[in-house]
Amino acid sequence: MRAQDQLIEENIGLLWQGSDLLARLDDAAYVRIPSLLPPHRVGGHLRHCLEFYECFLDGVERGAIDYDARRRDPRLETRREEAMMKILSLADRLDALRYTADRRVRVRMEDAPAGIGEGGWLASTTARELQVLRSHTVHHYALISMTLRALGIHVDAGFGMAPSTIRHLRGAA
Fold first, then answer.
1. Which of 162, 55, 156 is nearest to 110 (CA)?
2. Which position has the higher pLDDT, 165 or 150?
3. What pLDDT score was predicted for residue 117?
4. 165, 29, 86, 127: CA torsion to nearest 10
5. Inter-residue contact 107 to 63 (CB < 8 Å)
6. Residue 31's pLDDT is what?
């Protein structure tokens, strides 16, 4: 399997992990903020991840990805059903990229220092950005996991853990 297709598969898998988690939560847990971790809440982190995927997919079509152009849709962070529908849509859109060539894209760098890139835009590829999305999502899933644990809600041990860490732990066992 080509690297880009593998990365698409892994990102779709992460989206399904988020969907599975949502199916196990109630609406209150989705929006609740733990007293020791303000302002963290599951909905806010999940919205952030989903909107990164949306920026990626919209940007691939244009050849220019701007992760700062997120819509910041409050419905995604306050309504589980909205997040579930967005996950389905994003998974379908990612799936449609399978077997396409790795494309060159430009990516806008937030707060780019003077002299870096052309107006804050840097060269990248779709495969590289899929790797960035995977890492970014795992990072936020780890924050979701900590948030839920602070609320006293059980989360599977592997949720929010990098694939390389899981492989390392399996090898060490």
1. 55
2. 150
3. 66
4. -10
5. no
6. 97
Q: Cis ω on the peptide bond leading into residue 39 (within 30° of 0)?
A: yes
Percent of the chain whose pLDDT exceeds 90: 81
* Sign of the four-CA dihedral 93, 138, 152, 171: positive
- 16: left (phi > 0), else alpha (psi -120 to 50), else beta? alpha
- Look at the chain and count its residues: 173
Cα dihedral 77/80/83/88 (nearest 10): 170
Task: Compute the average pLDDT of residues 17-25.
Answer: 97
Do residues 22 and 83 make contact, with C-beta atoms less than 8 angstroms apart? yes
Q: Give the residue extent of every domain in the chain.
A: 3-172
The two three-digit tokens of residue 31, written as one number: 């929006």
pTM score over 0.90: yes
- CATH class of the domain at 3-172: mainly alpha
Q: Give the whole-angstrom CA distance, residue 62 versus residue 105.
A: 8
